[in-house]
Amino acid sequence: MEATIEVAGLRKRFGQITALDGMSFTVTPGQVTGFVGPNGAGKSTTMRVILGLDSADEGHALVGGRPYRSLRRPLSHVGALLDAGALQPSRTARDHLLWLAHSQGLGAGRVGEVIEQVGLGSAARRRAGGFSLGMRQRLGIAAALLGDPPVLMLDEPFNGLDPEGIVWMRGFLRSLAAEGRAVLVSSHLMSELQDTAGHLVVAGRGRVVADAAVADLIAAASGGRIALRTPARAEAMTALAGAGATVAATGPDALTVSGLAAERVVSLLNARAVPFSEVAAHRATLEEAHMDLTRDVAEFRAATGREAAR
Amino acid sequence: MSVATVYRSGLRAGRDGFAQLVRAEWTKFRTVRGWVIAMTAASLIIVALGLSYASGNRSTCGQGPVEVACPAPPVGPDGEAVTDGFFFVHRPLPAEGGITVRLTSLTGIITYPPPDHDKIVPGLVPWAKAGIIVKENTRPGSAYAALMVTAGHGVRMQYDYTHDIAGRPGRVSAASPRWLRLTRTGDTLTGYESADGRQWAKVGTARLDGLAATVRIGFFVTSPSDLTVKRSDLGGTIEQARFTQATGVFDHVSVQGTAPGEWSGGNVGNAGTTDWERHHQATGVQESGGTFTVTGHGDIAPQTDGQPIERPLTGVLIGLIVMVVVAVTSMTAEYRRGLIRTTLLADPRRGRTLAAKAVVIGAVSFAAGLAAAAVAVLAGRPILQANGNYVLPVSTFTEVRVIAGTGVLAALAAVFALALGTLFRRAVAAVITAIALIVVPYILATASVLPDGAAQWLLRLTPAAGFAIQQSIPEYAHVLGHYVPAAGYFPLAPWAGLAVLSAYTALALGLAVVLLRRRDG
Fold it and tell me: With a cut of 0.95, is the ipTM above it?
């Protein structure tokens, strides 16, 4: 149980706003776990509670079986990147890492190692204030790696990276997980996670909406659905709905049908003489799976507003 | 679900302790060039303002039409500057023994007192004194012990200028004479008083270490200048000193033990030079049938006219403002950038984290304050002296206290500011509060804009009380003086003043820890 993050029944209110409403999940070692959900779903608040920065009204969050605030030399238990911009601009990258290293009883040698690891060697003695967002992300990753922790928590690490940087970051996260670390990555870039995360925790309205392997989620989202293209949309909907299918219009001449097999759809339409140009089994992307899971949550958010500010 | 082997770090675990946190905070401080430069600048400002004060301050004395260097006052047995002027009727006392007298009268004159300032009136200043004395020799500044009756403070036993023991209160007159006795046994002198010459009460004892075998024993009269203080129209005060003279009548003079020779009289120090003394009544002694009438002017007391060693520390005020800004910013910059979260992640024990910050900012400010004060005081003194100023001598301990105390003052002010920065999380609010509590009360209290009482309360109740640690010359209860903040006299003793600032700092730091623990990062 050492290299894990456990979140159980977290609740937290900020005044009238419920930020966390029973958030529970576990992050296991050896893979990248994506932490996704719309703005205001409680991802950042959850991460801050795990790191002991915010306190929860109820529930608990453990890192390696212990609350963060009880950890000694915490950076050797969990490395975190919350806000890449949290830097004193006049301090050099190396000096930023040096004071962090000193706080953990580590020396300048370790600073040199992580700087090389994230590819910032040539910029180490430059002031962090002049760094691009991408370089700051790398510096933040270096800081998270300083204590060589078995658990990593990164909030939006792809932000501000150029395409080359994104490729690097995906490989880097996978390799960290492959070493047996538990890696929790929050992101809104679902396509990135599709190639990186092995597991997804989907948050909405302060709780977990879905917690599953990426492959299972995609299969579920695809869920025997059929994409249908027809110029006679209304007739097609009537015919298929009458046969017990769930039909959704996805365009002026496009429908998504679920609850019926493809052959049955074809024969029904033929029987009613409804013209159609295409019938295809639908394969969902992770993005769609995500949208599916969080649609109602997003509507809720639009109604209640300002949670995203947290 | 795929579970790989759980990651084990090959990194050797670092040490976990408060020292690591302090080291981290020190690394944080020294790697921001602006803070290092500002702290150095604070030091240099203190030195520069101090030395410029010293070189701009000149003092000369007139001797007729000629300007001459001012004569240095005598120095007492404990190294302090003293005033030692009185009329002394004495004889040698080669061994142990004592003197007994009866004092039947103490009268005097005061020249041109308020409100009209137009005549010389009969009267005594409270510390006019007549009594008996054992003194090492007639050189001003030599060791002594004396038992006396004063005009306004009853019987006193005083010795070596700074020591004063109260006896029975009350004035002396023919109807209510006072018997005084002073005896020497080795280095110990004991004073007794009596209303009738039969029932004696001990007033006090004094040990004068290393007192010569043969000393002078006798009786004396002296009277310090009258002092009036009035507020000037421009704010500030005007102090006026007036010549006074006292006359005491002694009888039943007897010496115990062997004291050979006759009584001889003379002025100790510079007396007898005023017109009043020349044309009306000279200082001196007249004997008539065993009754001695002695007239004198002056005082036997510490003297505080001159430059105290802390005078070149005027720039500390400006230096402190810079240090306060650095201390506040070292905290609020973390809030502004969100770096405080990284700091709290590095060690979630928030009290310790703040303590480590306080140690670093306190140590840096102490070093900057100490170095600056040492240079300003030690280099300022010879410059002052070269310009003809008399710098009041103090003990090495006092000098160390003033210099190191300035360092401690800077450290406490900086930690106080750091705590305010944590409480407010906004630099401007914290800096304004710190300056309003430390610097502004000091300026108000010492700039003569407030009544003396208000000024003294400010320096008792606000963190500015800590400046008291810089006061090298104490207030003497047995010397009339205008002891106000504007003249460099604090209402609290040096360590008490520093304790007030420490209490404020501890309170602010405690609140900051509580708040830091409670609030979300």
Answer: no
